[in-house]
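Usage example:
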Amino acid sequence: MNTEKIVEKILLIFALSATLVIFLIILFLFKEGLPILKKEGLGFILGKVWNPGKEIYGALTFIVGSLSVTFLALFIAVPLGVSCALFLAEIAPKRAESLFRPVIELLAGIPSVVYGMFGLIVIVRFIKVSFDVPTGETVLAGGIVLAIMILPIIISISEDAIKSVPRIYKEGSFALGATHWQTMRRVILPTASSGITASIILAMGRAIGETMAVVLILGNVEMIPKSILNPAEALTSVILLEMGEASVGSSHYQALFAIGIILFIIVMILNIISVKIGVRKK
Amino acid sequence: MKDKHVYAILWTSTILTATILIFILGFVVLKGSAALSIEFLTDIPREGGEAGGIFPAILGTIYLVVVALVVAVPLGVGGALYLVEFQKENIVTKIIRFGADTLNAVPSIIFGLFGFVFLVYYLKLGVCILSGGVTLAFMILPTLLRTSEEALRAVPGWDKEGSYALGATKLQTIKNIVLPQSLSGIITGIVLSIGRAAGETAPIIFTAAILNPVLPKSVFDPTMSLPSHLYTLVSESTPEKLVNAYGTALVLIILVLITTYSAMLLRKYFTRHVRR
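Running the assembly step on the lines above writes:
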């Protein structure tokens, strides 16, 4: 074999490393978590009681906690993010665009633990005072901070989608006498809708998988939140908070990996949907 | 709705988003600058981190990032070279891309679980810099692969063809034409990965992080790190004693500002350089 062939083989192995890692992640996650999922069956997902001391494992409260804070975050971030994307793609003067672009990059770059600190000290206190609740560590606080964290994804991917709407569509609409807003609403947004939806689903995956911010802000109270002013606990938080006390191989340890499996499956489904939607249009 | 109303809404949304960022940055800078001093950067933490400095955490984060880069850069850049220079689009490249995209979507806490069960426990590396750094490497790998691929693809075909026409081999062409021309693009990806790896908490908390301010002697020792130290301070200190947490957050933010800004500069240079 000549050098070129050897280099090619080595580079192939390098290229496949990411695939190998994802394979190993799935393998080890299921190896550790599957036994308890099999034993507990649907009860693991539908059970409301989580008591590792008595070996009772029902993850419903955490699933509801994760989903409620995620949907609240989307509720806040989608209108705001799509508006910013429309601004960038449709009306932004060059100066405003060049000022705003670094804003998105920096928002995306701030570490999640810093968002968590900011949320705990500013947002949580603000909510405690302004809504007069016993604790500000609530779904609302978590939703607000997660919304800020997923804004960059929604803005940048939606902007790409809006910018890829063919110019003739717009010009046709203008030629028919439509105003800019009518064109945005009837032509641009519908044409870009699949890309925008893909960005929202991707953002949802990020929000569900987010750990450090939610663990600091949600209050980590094991209850199904009845309103957005209740505390909650997320799937990711349980893993982070309880891994330290679960001894390797115990049922508690396996249950935490089982939560990891649930999280992994949710995120993978969202990822596949967003890829499928994003691709279909192209 | 009239156009001017819509414009007003879009302007407001954008200004609001920018204001949020300025508010967060301003908060961390104002609160953190009270803690920031030479002693803070060079002293070890005292009284559970509420007094003293953060030197071991800074050092630990540097070690973790270096290990992550040493592992991930060759894999990412090499993998991208394979995709761009050695292989036409086929089932193999599809698998490679699918693997990278999937890995990119994995939540950070799952990397933490995986790093613990695979590196710390199964490979018996223990809780140490190596385990944490390799876990971080897995996390930044997809980004490195993608940014390097973009940079390599931007090298004009005629430059490569010119090199081949002069009788250069593929390896010579890669070494003399492709890599030098795509270098700034590849470095942009690396710089962005540094910012990301330095700020990640969940992947290292089970694999590398400890709370005692002991300086690591080798990659087989555990270490403090900036994000995990910040997490401990924020979750355990009382509000009056958060000064050092603000200082730690400021150091992290400064790091992110530097990496983001240099990546932007590099990208500007890169686009100008390639268009020529």
